[in-house]
Amino acid sequence: MLLGTVLVLLLAGAAPASAHAALRGTDPDDGSLVRQAPRHVTLTFTESVGLLDDSFRVFGPDQRRVHTGEATHAEGRSDTARVGLPGKLAQGTYTVAWRVVSADSHPVSGAFSFSVGKRSATTVQIDTGSTEDPLTGGLNDAARYLAYLAAALLVGLAAFALLCRPADTSAVRRPLVASWWTLLGSTLVLLLMRAPYEAGTGPATAFDVSALGRTLTGRPGLALVARLVLLLLIAVFLLWLSRRRDPEGRPVALATGTALAAALALTWAAAEHASAGIQVPLAMTSSVLHLLATGVWLGGLVALLLTLRRRSSGDDAVDDMAEVVPRFSRIAFASVTVLAVTGVYQSWRGLGSLSALTGTSYGRLLLAKLAGVAVLLLAARYARRWTARIAAPTAVTKVPVQERVPQPVGAPAEHDGPDEPGTPDGAPQELPESGGAPDIRRRLRRSVLVEVAVAAVVLMITTVLTGTLPARAQAEAARQAPAGALPPTTLITVPYDTGTESVSGRGTVQVTLDPARVGENGIQAVAAGSDKGLVVVPEIRITFTLPSRKVGPIDAELTDQGGYWSTNSVNLPLAGNWTMKTTVRVSDVDQVSVERRVRIAP
Predict the structure, then answer these.
(1) How far apart are CA 343 and CA 153, in angstroms?
(2) pLDDT higher than 80, residue 281
(3) Identity of the highest mean pLDDT range in 366-370, 384-388, 396-400
(4) What is the pLDDT of residues 231-244, one digit of tens each?
(5) What local confidence, expressed as pLDDT, does residue 495 receive?
(6) Which letter does DSSP use for residue 517 in this model?
(7) Are strands 56-59 and 107-116 parallel, antiparallel or unpaired?
(8) Which residues pair with 27 in a beta bridge?
(9) Which residues contact 168 (CB under 8 A, 6 or more apart)?
(10) How far apart are CA 193 and CA 216, in angstroms?
(11) Distance between CA 18 and CA 23 in Å, rounded?
């Protein structure tokens, strides 16, 4: 019942999507020249997106912001974003900066340009705003990691107490309470930082009432609120559990704890990668099982480590651990099996192809996680050796004593050595095997400590992985780009210094290469002097060379357009890393050449 309630709360209105929204196209097209001013700017994405109060910022040819209407979805389609433009737009180039929120809760942003009537005479860098505030991003990432870690400990410590049934659970009580408070605090931070994280603003905007209200109506905000409610229910459950001593209530406790843990894991699955893309129901089920298995294993390792440290070396402790450790070993093996199955499925779902393992950031992070898991499994295999020794009964060595032979009266007794005190004649002697139980427990503690340390690193990589664009979504965005859309331009900043003291003797050249692909390309080059202002220079010459194929130099043959230099007919016939040589002449005798590497796509 509880699982169903949380599922309905979090998934109401959900639609199939691709994890991380990617821009499919714009209207007007990026880099296009239109005769009449458009009434709207429309973006189309690969999945449904959420809109912000400041989703669009449009800048005119004079670099001033253009007044626009409120951002909406075009024709009710959740995978679009549209904003209205004023009725009269001056001729020139307009820059559109946009920012939306993916269905998997991660904000995405970008910018493009279009021109009305004619292109602006100069290309000027326009500050379209920061894509992310560093402090907000740092707080959000730290809170996400602490939330993952605290949830794993909370689930694992409770599972250890319920499933492994140690006689004394005092070793896990304080860590259990600490993990609950940590999860509560990190969830509150995530809830407050949600609006600044989406908007890319500083933490101070977290207390904006309108922004907080928008957070509480979105899916990520609802997931965090549901997590807070579940934490209150978990607190009541743990309090009830601490006061019960009858073993008959264990099945009820197990069922209730399992439901609460699954619902808690669902608050992550319903607001991250699993909630968008292909096979959403299966992906969310896999994500919940993956999170639960991680918690049972990682939190159980911490519980086992704390319990081993607390145990004394008495016989009762040995007997207790001889039962507890094998139970945890079986539970850990089952958890690893679940992690392997769900991990393979989630990797396939996020990658889409084997080449993405090394060709994308998502794939490389996944490789790092797999390497950490391999180290973790090696450490676990080592720990199982000591687990088996603790589970086995104490070994003894039977040493037979030579049977006495009747001797004549008065004859000296024959001994191979002195009798052990209290050992009856003819009885076997029990000699303890080297390496007692305390030493075995010490070695087991060390191996478990290594597992916990490696698992913490793996969990950190997982946190970064959940915020990275999946390779499958990246490839899907590239496939679904409409044929009429122009690819984004490449902007190269070339600093130059001719050694003269004039304003134009030192500065930068902004080179725009469009579309930076094989075939015909357009180039615009604008010079800025040492005072950052635009300057007019006698000549800018650009040539291209492909050293790997011994092609070039190809002269772009730029022409002076009255303040900037350009051409629309540079043919670059091959893909690869070209060398772009920019020569700036500021007088009849002063000039300098600077080389830059430029990637030309197929």
Answers:
(1) 20
(2) yes
(3) 366-370
(4) 999 999 999 888 87
(5) 84
(6) B
(7) unpaired
(8) 42
(9) 307, 310, 320
(10) 12
(11) 12
Residue 587 pLDDT level (bands cut at 50, 70, 90): confident
What does the buried/exposed string (b/e) look like for 299-327 if buried means 16 or more CB atoms within 10 Å of the residue's CB?
Answer: bbbbbbbbbbeebeeeeebbebbbebbbb
For residue 217, the SS3 value is coil
Q: How confident is the model at residue 441, as a pLDDT?
A: 63
- Tabulate helix, strand, coil % of the chain (nearest 5): 45, 20, 30
**What is each CA distance from 157 to 15, 61, 165, in whole angstroms?**
36, 61, 11
- Select the highest-mean-pLDDT range: 89-93, 99-103, 285-289, 449-453: 285-289
Identity of the residue numbered 364:
R
pLDDT, average across residues 180-197: 92
Q: What is the DSSP string of 432-458?
A: EPSS-HHHHHHHHHHHHHHHHHHHHHH
Among the listed residues 149, 121, 46, the one whose alpha carbon sits nearest the alpha carbon of residue 478: 46
Given the structure tokens 């409409």, which residue do they identify? 482
Residues in Cβ contact with 449 at an 8 Å cutoff, skipping those fewer than 6 apart: 305
Q: Three-class SS of residue 557?
A: coil
- Among 174-188, 291-305, 447-461, 473-487, which is the least confidently predicted range? 473-487
- Kindly report the length of the chain: 602
User: CA 306, 309, 312 angle in degrees (round to 5)?
Assistant: 130
State how far Cα 153 lies from the chain centre. 20
Residue of 300, 61, 46 lying closest to 164 (CA atoms):
300
CA 504 to CA 497: how far, in whole Å? 9
599 falls in which pLDDT band (50, 70, 90)? confident
**Can you read off the two tokens belonging to residue 526?**
């604008």
Rounded Cα distance between 523 and 375, Å, is: 51
**What is the C-alpha separation between 515 and 524, in angstroms, rounded?**
12
Mean model confidence pLDDT for the chain? 76
Report residue 418 as tokens.
């002195």
pLDDT of residue 430: 41
Which of 94, 88, 104 has the alpha carbon at shortest distance from 21? 104
pLDDT at position 187, please?
95
Take residue 324 and report the two structure tokens written for it: 């507890």
Distance in angstroms (rounded) separating the CA atoms of residues 76 and 88? 26
Kindly indicate the confidence band of residue 178, based on its pLDDT and cuts at 50, 70 and 90: very high
CA-based Rg of the chain, rounded to a whole angstrom? 34
Calpha distance 450→137 (Å, rounded):
30
Q: Hey, what are 364's tokens? A: 């490389």
Give phi and psi for 509, each to the nearest 5. -120, 120
- Residue 358 and residue 323: Cα distance in Å, rounded? 45
Q: State the Cα–Cα distance between residues 102 and 49, nearest whole angstrom.
A: 5
Q: How does residue 123 score in pLDDT terms, banded at 50, 70 and 90?
A: very low
In the chain, what percentage of residues exceed pLDDT 70? 75
d(CA 342, CA 336): 10
Query: Does 289 have pLDDT greater than 90?
Result: yes
Q: Which two tokens stand for residue 358?
A: 């090394």
Q: Do the beta carbons of residue 46 and residue 7 sit within 8 Å?
A: no
> Which H or E element spans position 333?
helix 315-351
